[in-house]
Amino acid sequence: TTKQLVVSEKLAAIGEIAAGIAHEINNPVQVIQGNLDVVRVQLGAEADQIKTELRLIDEQTHSIFLIVNKLLQFTRPDEYAEGSAQHRPADILLDTLPLVQHLLSNSEIVLHQELNSLNTVAINRTELQQILINLMVNAIHAMPEGGDLTLAAEDQQREGREGVLIIVKDTGIGMTAEHLTRIFDPFFTTKQGEGTGLGLSITSKLVARYDGAIEAQSRLGQGTEFHVWFPAAGC
Ligand code: ADP
What we know:
With about 240 residues, this protein is α+β, with helices and mostly antiparallel strands. The chain has helices at about 1-45, 50-75, 90-105, 125-140, 175-180, 200-210, and strands at about 85, 110-115, 120-125, 145-155, 165-170, 215-220, 225-230. The strands form two sheets. The chain has a five-stranded mixed beta sheet, with helices on one face. Helix 3 packs parallel to helix 4 and helix 4 (about 125-140) runs antiparallel to helix 6 (about 200-210). The protein is globular and about 65 Å long. The two termini are about 25 Å apart. Adenosine-5'-diphosphate binds near residues 139, 172, 195 and 200.
């Protein structure tokens, strides 16, 4: 439809601007980081007295670096793709768990796995991992006081097409209906100072690339459930 066309043109324009800005930001950030190391060496023992400040500068510079990298991934995802192969999403879910383990082990979150799918999907492994990490990290962030994180994968048909449904479900803070309509918009975030608002827009772009579908259901104060569906390889 026309509306969808306008939205995707807008996204492409945002992407181009973002890529330009990301490159421009990367250079001064590298200079800051490099000089910070030099200053630390020059200060020697004195550095201990301003440790907190130096650490803050270091951390914040690193967080700029991470944001810029996310922007670049968002705008040039093709550079990150190494080609697709047939993968079982359930296997990749299991392989992705260690990458978020450090967030789980410091929390009161109980992990539940219901990995029953057997179908394979033709997908780039790194990109599927990126999708899963984005959803899992959001789910973990939504449960600062703990809760249940459920990961499920089951074979499921959609409109007569064989496929795999992946579910990432949390019992966290949830969202209002109004927020829910905006979560896939680039730069929409409620995590002031900590979020980029790019995770889910990248995620939905990646899912669309493989002809998949992504949906979210949420209830404020109760939790959120993301459904990601991919067609089975060859279907
Ligand atoms: P970010 O995490 O950097 O804010 P995302 O695009 O990943 O960016 O998410 C956008 C917003 O969607 C979040 O700021 C949050 O408000 C909401 N959101 C995403 N996942 C969840 C979740 N599991 N529970 C509650 N809110 C969520």
